[in-house]
Amino acid sequence: MVPDDSSTDDAGVEPSTDDTRAEPTTGDAGAAPTASDAQSRDASDRRVAGDRYDPDDDSGGYLSPGDDAPADLGDILLYGLLGGIAGSVLSFVPFATVLGGALAGYLCGGTSADALKTGAVAGAVMTLPFVAVVAFLLFLFGFAGAPAEFGVFALLVVGVGAAYTLGSGVVGGYLGHYLRGEL
After folding, report:
1. Residue boundaries of the structural domains of the chain
2. What is the pTM of this model?
3. Is the pLDDT of residue 44 over 60?
């Protein structure tokens, strides 16, 4: 803040530029403030308003602003889809379903409940290729004359696989949310 040259007193001393605002002293108690007083107040108000926002406040500097706000349904579905695709692509890696859920939970932000939902969406997306392969195999074996018990066993395998994939996607979503707060 640059002091106004016209506001020097008779001794030639410049007014102080400390952060405290002093009311202007004029000889006339009812005098209206001058334009330079209004400008200095506006600049001071902008400086004070700019100091109010602290990105590290109330989050320890770990979460981005707005991370505590609930995520939109569109965000949950989008990041769940991205995490599910990543988990499916990384299916050759052990615990890829956890990695896909963790990616989804990390990207989504929001609350921990949102991270669990996003991990569940990622797990459901990662289940789809497995279900498609098993359905195709059942279709082929049905034409080959496989016994009905084979179909029942295949459905049991699909159910267990889906429970594992969904469960590990949810766990990954929670871990991703935790890592977002720590990294």
Report:
1. 73-182
2. 0.60
3. no
